[in-house]
Amino acid sequence: MKFLLVCLALALFGATVAEKARYDNYRVYRVRIQDERQLELLQAIEQYPDGYRFWSEPVKVGTEVLLVVPPHQRGHFSDIRARFGLRAELQIANLQQQIDLESRPSLRKNTFGWDAYYRVDAMYGWLDSLVASYPGVVSPLNIGNSFEGRPIKGVKVSYKAGNKGVFMEGLIHAREWVSGATVTWVLNELLTSTDPKVRSIAENYDWYFFPVTNPDGYEYTHTTDRQWRKTRSQASALCRGADPNRNWGYNFMQGGASSVPCSDTFAGASAFSEVETRQLSDFIATLDNLSTYLAFHSYSQLLLVPYGHTTARLDNYDETIAIGTKAINKLQERYGTTYKIGNIAEAIYVASGGSIDWVKGVLRTPLVYAYELRDLGRYGFVLPPDQIIPTAQETLDSIIVILEEGTNYGYH
């Protein structure tokens, strides 16, 4: 009992005086898992990390992971590379240097834009300005508050009654900054672009934009720890947060999620234990016109379809894959960026309790996709700001195709 009280005191003390985490001389390696022995090694490191951090999970032979190696583990990492024959390619030599370049204040202008990554208040301020600038078209959505009391804000864009709906979800994983930036850029294009194809989808669908669905976690990545992924609820005496993309109530905890509160993939004490996912799902369930749900993550350059708990095919798998394949082919045309498409459990790994599984499995929404945006691991989660607009441009190209092809199949 005394030990638990000490742990709790330390946790609370840390919450009040925490300094911003730094990653000076931390290195990021791309590691190829070639056999079961290597897989077991990496899974053991994931369970007892001692400073190591995985940016992608070691789940099966034949895949690659990005592994963050702290300075004090360089000797250990060199040793296990030699003993286990690990193929490890250096991706980032100094993680802190990359973080500093990504978030340097000189990039941010007085007005909101896409030349830098902006914090929660700036994003929400911009959403408020759209409501004022486009009366009758943009309306505010505030579905509740996060664990720490931040509003979960969005906007609806609607040019006329009777449209089918498209939902855009960003930043459910806090460290995936480009996801929220992409969602806001697409929103801006729907309001300002004169391109006929953009105008067509803007005016013939109702759009629900939520660029920051995990505001506490996202703010924490700016103030305290750039690598933070989860919410900020009190998971245990020692650890905070649950993975909000393992917390949805469809096949909850059916693989690819952890019951350990300190894990990055901790699913939560129960389905919808997190106030953010509970309120978001409650709102989505009220939308009776929804035909398309698009979730945005990074990184890996994948277009994923449900489900995460099984490789079994969803009801309209063939059509969903056919539409998605045309979409990623269109995405490639602008900058040559290559994507792959597939079921979550096959394309990456088993991961149950995700938002797109719930939207498809419970609400039966016809077209549901999750984007894993740029890149393939050169920068990982720390994508340079000069890639925001190119990433968003090619993504919008593909969204247009999803909606056009969905119409051809009779989904809208």
Structure, explained:
This is Zinc carboxypeptidase A 1. Residues 116-406 form the Peptidase M14 domain. The chain is α/β, with parallel strands linked by helices and 412 residues long. The protein has 2 domains: 27-102, Alpha-Beta Plaits (2-Layer Sandwich), CATH 3.30.70.340; 111-409, Zn peptidases (Aminopeptidase, 3-Layer(aba) Sandwich), CATH 3.40.630.10. The chain is 38% helix and 17% strand. It has helices spanning 2-17, 36-47, 74-84, 95-102, 120-133, 177-192, 196-203, 215-223, 275-284, 317-335, 344-347, 355-361, 388-408, and strands at 27-32, 53-54, 64-69, 87-92, 138-145, 151-157, 164-169, 205-210, 290-298, 302-305, 340-343, 367-373. β10 (302-305), α10 and β11 form a beta-alpha-beta unit. α6 (177-192) crosses α13 and α10 packs antiparallel against α13 (388-408). The protein is globular.
Rg calc: 21 Å
Overall pLDDT, averaged?
Answer: 94
Physical arrangement of strands within the biggest beta sheet:
5-6-8-7-9-12-10-11
Structural class: alpha/beta
> CA-to-CA gap between the ends?
58 Å
| Succession of helices and strands | HEHEEHEHHEEEHHEHHEEHEHHEH
Low-confidence stretches: 1-17
Number of domains: 2
Going by CATH, the homologous superfamily of the largest domain would be Zn peptidases
Look up the CATH topology of the largest domain: Aminopeptidase
Tally of helical segments: 13
Largest sheet descriptor: 8 strands, mixed
Any guess at the CATH architecture of the largest domain?
A: 3-Layer(aba) Sandwich
Helix content percent band: 25-40%
CATH class of the largest domain: Alpha Beta
The count of DSSP E runs of length 2 or more, i.e. the number of strands, is 12
Strand portion:
15-25%
**Overall body shape:** globular
Active site: 372 (proton donor/acceptor)
InterPro entries: CARBOXYPEPT_ZN_1, CARBOXYPEPT_ZN_2, M14A-like_propep, M14A_act_pep, Peptidase_M14
Signal peptide: 1-18
Family: Belongs to the peptidase M14 family.
